[in-house]
Amino acid sequence: MTTEGSPHRLTVLGAGVMGTGITAMAVGHGVPVVLVDVDADALARARAEVLGKVRHARLMGTLPEDRAEGELVTTSSVGAECSDATAVVEATTEIPEMKAKALGEIAAAVPEGTPLISTTSGIPIDEMADWVPRPADLVGTHFMNPAYLINTVEMIRGPRTAESTMARATALLEAMARRVIVVRDAPGFVTSRLLHPMINAAARVVGEGTATVEDVDELMRGCLGHPVGPLRTADLIGIDNLVDSLVVLHERTGDESARPCELLLAKVREGNLGRKTGRGFYDYGRALS
């Protein structure tokens, strides 16, 4: 196993499902990561969750066998540990105010030219560019969940994103064996614009009593080739994250198909958010990382 150090050093903001998945992907490919989260409970769970995901990725054969794992540092604040990052991934909740705060803090801590990679699932990159002092450094990269297993990523170039930012972000992703597909900036981009209203429609069908959760997923799998079904996908994304993304999409496009349906909203109110809480559209018996 090679121990040669990676030229990349990553800071990840947010130790939720997506943040730990991206961290696992990076660590498993030999990239050292500083993982930041203000939630002490999330941070306390993060190391075990990341290492569990790395093990899962190894079992699935998605990590290089000849590369030592990158070092993982966890911290509750943006500080000196983050200052030498060669790239930053912002993976906080899909709430504009939270993303703006996180991006503003990290932009002040890293040198000019450090790519600020947002995992937003719906907010236009050019809208977010107003939140940072150096708009040229901001780029969107939409990872699919689980990020440590799915190797295709959607990269969104905003109107003010610099060519050097695109090149550096692409080099990082390719070092982690990711296939990058670049799209133009727009609310929801491609994947969220198509997937999230479809999940919303599936939940609406269940809420109206047309079919059960299981039957909707089985029809989408058996007839239309969806890998697991839209409602099981919702549980994997996190129903609260899905609702936040739909709200962003509805507000910015006016598309009524993106207005979160009552069944999704009810599950959020009840705290049944999917795999991470142990129950969503399906019952998982216990909370999963």
Q: State mean pLDDT (0 to 100 scale).
A: 94
Order of helices and strands: EHEHEEHEHEEHEHHHHH
Overall tally of domains: 2
Give the CATH architecture of the largest domain.
Answer: 3-Layer(aba) Sandwich
Q: Strand count, sense and closure of the main sheet?
A: 8 strands, mixed
What is the CATH fold-level name of the largest domain? Rossmann fold
Domain 3-hydroxyacyl-CoA dehydrogenase C-terminal: 188-284
Keywords: Oxidoreductase
Organism: Actinoalloteichus caeruleus DSM 43889
Domain 3-hydroxyacyl-CoA dehydrogenase NAD binding: 10-185
How would you concisely characterize the structure shown here?
The protein folds into 2 domains: 10-184, NAD(P)-binding Rossmann-like Domain (Rossmann fold), CATH 3.40.50.720; 191-277, N-(1-d-carboxylethyl)-l-norvaline Dehydrogenase, domain 2 (Orthogonal Bundle), CATH 1.10.1040. The protein is built from 10 helices and 8 strands.
3D structure, described in words:
The protein has 289 residues and is α/β, with parallel strands linked by helices. It folds into 2 domains: 10-184, NAD(P)-binding Rossmann-like Domain (Rossmann fold, 3-Layer(aba) Sandwich), CATH 3.40.50; 191-277, N-(1-d-carboxylethyl)-l-norvaline Dehydrogenase, domain 2 (Orthogonal Bundle), CATH 1.10.1040.10. 43% of the residues lie in helices and 12% in strands. The chain contains 10 helices and 8 strands. It has helices at 17-28, 40-59, 96-109, 125-129, 163-175, 191-207, 213-224, 230-237, 239-253, 262-270, and strands spanning 10-13, 33-36, 72-75, 87-90, 116-118, 138-142, 152-157, 179-184. Helix 6 packs across helix 8, helix 6 (191-207) packs across helix 9 and helix 8 packs across helix 9. It is globular and about 55 Å long. The relative contact order is 0.12. The model has no long low-confidence stretch (mean pLDDT 94).
